[in-house]
Amino acid sequence: MSTTATTLRNAPAAGSYALDQSHSHVSFSARHLMITKVRGRFPVTAGHLDISEDPTQSSVDATIDVSAVDSGDPKRDEHLRSADFFDAENYPTVNFRSTRVHDRGDGEFTLEGELTVRDTTRPVTLQGEYLGAQDSPFGDSRVGFTAETEINRKDWGLEWNVALEAGGVLVGDKIKLTIDAEWVKE
């Protein structure tokens, strides 16, 4: 059920917003050896946010640079960029485009969209939170959001793995994604 702008609380000001690349990224975590989690991040290099008077009619698109993956281990990062995973030489970016926003109240929302990885587009649902608005010391107005989802990497053809002798696999299939984004009002 969506609500109208008059009942939505903690909504950002309507308008067009450009991505602040230096304050936006996507974090990920995946199981390793089935006993721990590996974490890393990707920069968000492009994006646009349109906040409608009725925030449930808003939209967002973003481009994530997988060729700049940083997991804290250069050898692992090179493997993630290889054809075993992202094939960054041929597909250097991942793209997200929203398709629907559902207000959950008090600044929380569900964002439905399409995630494209290696030319495969699949639907995703993110649980998000509007973190607030602030006028910066640089003379502009900014808004911040965070959103999370969990995906199965195999849905996008990222199938590389190694079976472990004791059972299980080297890399888990489920990947948790957390998006943190700051936007500048145009």
Report a brief summary of the structure:
This protein is mainly beta and 186 residues long. The protein has one helix and nine strands; from the N terminus they run ββββαβββββ.
> In total, how many domains does the architecture comprise?
1
Kindly provide the name of the CATH class: Mainly Beta
Q: N-to-C terminal Cα separation, in Å? A: 30 Å
Please work out how many helical segments DSSP would assign.
1
How would you sum up this structure, described in words?
- By secondary structure, this protein is mainly beta.
- It has a single domain (about 15-185), classed as Lipocalin (Beta Barrel), CATH 2.40.128.
- Helix content is about 5%, strand content about 55%.
- The protein has one helix at about 75-80; strands at about 15-20, 25-30, 35-50, 60-65, 95-105, 110-115, 120-135, 140-150, 170-185.
- Strands 1, 2, 3, 4, 5, 6, 7, 8 and 9 form a 9-stranded antiparallel beta sheet that branches.
- The radius of gyration is 18 Å and the shape is elongated.
What labels would you give this structure?
186 residues; mainly beta; Lipocalin; 9-stranded antiparallel sheet; 1 helix; 55% strand; elongated; disordered N terminus
Please render the helix and strand layout as text.
Elements lengths: L14 E5 L5 E8 L3 E16 L7 E7 L8 H8 L11 E13 L2 E10 L2 E16 L5 E12 L18 E15 L1
Antiparallel strand pairs: 1-3, 1-9, 2-3, 2-9, 3-4, 4-5, 5-6, 6-7, 7-8, 8-9
